[in-house]
Amino acid sequence: MAEWNADAVREEVRAWLEEHWDPELSLIEWRNMLAESGWATPTWPVQWFGRGMPVALADAVTEEFRRIGAVGLPGGVGASLAAATILEHGSDDLKRRHLRPIITGEDTWCQLFSEPGSGSDLAGLTTRADRDGDAWVINGQKVWNTSAHHARWGMLLARTDWDVPKHGGITYFVIDMQQPGVVVRPLRQMNGYASFNEVFLTDARVPADHVIGDVNQGWKVALATLAHERRLARIGGRTPRGAGRALDEYRAELEEVMEPYVWYPQRAGRPDLVVDRALATGRHSDPVVRQEIAKLLALVRASEWTAQRAKAAQKLGRPPGPEGSIAKLCTSHIARASAHVHTLLAGGDAMLTGNDGPEDGLIAEILISVPAQSIAGGTDEIQRNIISERVLGMPRGPAVDVGKPFRDVPKNLAT
Ligand SMILES: Cc1cc2nc3c(=O)[nH]c(=O)nc-3n(C[C@H](O)[C@H](O)[C@H](O)COP(=O)(O)OP(=O)(O)OC[C@H]3O[C@@H](n4cnc5c(N)ncnc54)[C@H](O)[C@@H]3O)c2cc1C
């Protein structure tokens, strides 16, 4: 393996972009060139549209794309979750079919994991897949599925063996969302957006070769997807400035693909607004408010340092440590602390939505979006369980289903 050097990588990607980036290309022409070059996904293997680069150098490539204003990968969970999972566990056939349209943005994806009866206890899922010739027939219901309303493909977990303990009978499928057996119904959230859906699966069909990993080994694959999800800092898509066909088409793509994520900055609490809001409202001179702001900013800074420690350990080739486990929990703490400070600054006005409210209703949107931060991608309580059991080595909590065939485990849905 070649020795990698950040300066040399920067120089190489800059030279390539200066020679090839042309905003007058169509978006698909440009993304096809990117796929061939390996620069859209430099950490992927060379034979699969990448350059085999270490993760630590990916930022250098992204910065060069930003510097020149070139379009990169599409946003959404296609590249960040689906492709990452297929690369780790998928067959070469699945890689051939799905990786390129993810890079070009021709295919969008959604994650069909949670069910009405199983969210935190994901391995207790009861959507079933039964073999019928060279296909699987899927029946069940999923819920909270972000972007399912415009996804072409779904990452689906379904039960294929009911006679083994719960983790051992799950299979991971790639399901075509645009078939008659798949019905997607949007759900409206309390902040007014409709990013999630319920997905009803009735005799939907999945070809037998659309399994990621092995049949009944889907739990291991699901853990890989969840690990990528918990590491996600942001889900993509800065709006680029400038003129040109590729940029216009990219802005249109962002508007559609990123629409479910427009409120995500608010769900993180917007601590970035706090100091300016304190000055603008004159509340910065209140000692109690100042103390809460200081606590919040200290938490933000400590969390940034923890992220830097994790990055430094990764650069040294060390396995993921406790920093990674507490990172997600920190984001929830920061979101809540920030919502608290925004409330102190705005007082009763924080309850006003729309143009009547402070910052044109943004503060109210923060307050009603923040609870999602401690639920998405695994709740705070589940993160604490993971930290206590896997990082601190404390005994596991009691469970009624260990070692039992899933068929005999009490559940809240008919099976
Ligand atoms: C913004 C957002 C986006 C999402 N996107 C998707 C998506 O695209 N695809 C998808 O499949 N899902 C998605 N989800 C769903 C998410 O994964 C689940 O909401 C989450 O796993 C929690 O499951 P649940 O809602 O069923 O809550 P439950 O599991 O019913 O939990 C209810 C409460 O009980 C607590 N609890 C449960 N078990 C334990 C335990 N063992 N110990 C202590 N406390 C416990 C929980 O912490 C929580 O407070 C999304 C959720 C959000 C908020």
What does this structure look like?
The chain has 415 residues and is α+β, with helices and mostly antiparallel strands. It is built from 13 helices and 8 strands. A 4-stranded mixed sheet has the order 1-4-5-8. A hairpin with a 2-residue loop joins β2 and β3. The radius of gyration is 23 Å and the shape is globular.
> Which ligands does the model contain, each kind named once?
flavin-adenine dinucleotide
Mean pLDDT across the residues is 93
Determine the N-to-C terminus distance.
Answer: 51 Å
Major beta sheet, strand line-up: 1-4-5-8
- What profile does the largest beta sheet have? 4 strands, mixed
Q: Number of helix segments?
A: 13
Stretches where pLDDT is under 50 for at least 5 consecutive residues are: none
The quaternary organization reads as single chain
Shape: globular
Helical fraction equals 40-55%
What is this structure's SSE topology?
Elements: H1 6-20, H2 27-37, H3 58-68, H4 77-89, H5 92-104, E1 109-112, E2 128-132, E3 135-143, E4 153-159, E5 170-176, E6 182-186, E7 197-207, E8 211-212, H6 218-231, H7 245-257, H8 264-267, H9 274-281, H10 287-315, H11 322-346, H12 362-369, H13 380-391
Parallel strand pairs: 1-4
Antiparallel strand pairs: 2-3, 3-7, 4-5, 5-8, 6-7
The structure holds flavin-adenine dinucleotide.
Flavin-adenine dinucleotide binds at residues 110-114, 119-120, 144-146, 372, 375-376, 378-379, 381-382, 385.
